[in-house]
Design brief:
Blueprint: E1 7-9, H1 22-27, E2 36-41, E3 47-52, H2 53-69, E4 77-81, H3 87-97, E5 101-104, H4 111-121, E6 125-128, E7 141-143, H5 145-151, E8 167-173, E9 181-186, H6 188-192, H7 194-201, E10 208-211, H8 218-231, E11 234-238, H9 246-254, E12 258-261, H10 263-271, H11 276-279, E13 285-288, H12 295-305, E14 309-315, E15 319-323, E16 337-338, E17 343-347, E18 360-365, E19 374-375, H13 379-384, E20 386-387, E21 390-399, E22 405-410, E23 415-417, E24 420-422, H14 424-431, E25 437-448, E26 451-460, H15 466-476, E27 485-488, H16 502-513
Helix pairs in contact: 2-3, 2-5, 10-12
Length: about 525
Amino acid sequence: MPLSQSLFDLGPPPPCPARFNMARHVLSSGANPDKRALGVLGEGGALIEDWRYRDLDRAIRATAAGLRARGLKPGERVALRMANTADFPILFFATIAAGAIAVPTSAALTAPEFARLCTDMTPRFIAVSEGLEVETPPGTTLLGPDDWRALRETPPGAIAETAAEDPAFLVYTSGTSGQPKGVLHAQRSAWARQMMWEGWYGLGRDDIMLHAGAFNWTYTLGAGLTDPWAAGASTLIYTGPRDPAIWPRLIERHGATLFAAVPGVYRQMLRGGEDLRAQLASLRHGLTAGERLSEHLAETWSTRTATPLYEALGMSECSTYVSSSPSVPRRPGTAGRPQAGRRVGVVDDTGAVLPLDTPGHLAIDRRDPGLMLGYWGRSEDTATAQQGNWFLTGDRARMDAEGYITHEGRSDEVMNALGYRVAPMEVEEALATHPAIAEIAVAELPVRADLSLIAAFVVARDWPGEDALSRFAAEHLASYKCPKLWIAVEALPRTANGKLLRRALVETHRRDRD
């Protein structure tokens, strides 16, 4: 039935049990104990670690018991500063199994960056890989590789009897102030992820999920590990050199049925000369999140591979909640529909639901079981993100009569052009179709104290000149949306997992100009 306003609600998800532990959730799928839960792939795609469900269960329970024996108490934090190995998820879920709070962090952080996080979270233990610097805070114990492997020799114990609302893990996300904010999630967050199984993945027990991310990324921990394990499926994680040509070979060699990555990875795969359709014969579809999927990329991928890409929109505070899937057809220009069980709206500054096709704040019902408990130690920030019964995601969007969401960028990325609000992704998608543009990022660039202009940072195959680019933009965009500055760059800055960093482009350009 078509919607009458920007509110999508297909009814609540099944209630999470009052007593719930997400480590038990991923270990109780009923999968054959001898079935592969995790295959770790090294250079060239060779299988270097083969974790069966029986082995995974024992390792997590033993490590949890070992942590408790070392003095870990419920609610204390275990920070993970580790390389891209299977030790990472084992310690992550073991900490949760012990009733404590796991804190995954990126190995790419510098020692001072990690130290600032430790000041905020005050960990009881820090699990650290060799070669990664750590300043040990007072009251904190370091666990090196020999320590965490010794923990696995502890006799396995019971998983803690936690409540669904008890904290399970803490992730840090970029804040608008420039200071990372800790996002605290409850045990119930894993239960809520089941809405994605049909709403995004089409996930089943027979699937083999290959994830392009590192173990320490929440996209990998969720879509690559938590969900496949809870469903009794198998997961493959690659830890070798990041050659774009490796992914088709891994899919073909290991028979992956699902592949998850950011759009940039799919774009790189298409640039190769491989016969992708033959190599991806086992693949049902690809999954993409982290940044907007352009229509050009989606259509080119589908033509070259005969498989679809399903996009999801999410955030650290709630994971993904809007998506397309095998049961929700893609609609060009949209990120998909809210997953069944979600209550999502587009609201104004007061929290009132807006009419259809009206841009506003994308909001999630505060009762969503996947929503965070709050920002760690930042009650004011938590309250600011709430408006009545809504949690404001920080995204701007509009909703059509079928519930499809058109994402118009982050609230803090939306550009101001002569009084008009312009989403950078809208401009990028239009300009990316120019044959000379390999990659493009658009951002609001201050040129003096009282003036900012829309700037396009272009990685060109062959620089066509500013006049040609301006003419092309004028053919595809309203005048106020067209970039006023064209800046040639050799590459776009991205995180280790491929997410575009627009702010870094602006900061680098301003620094170089000054």
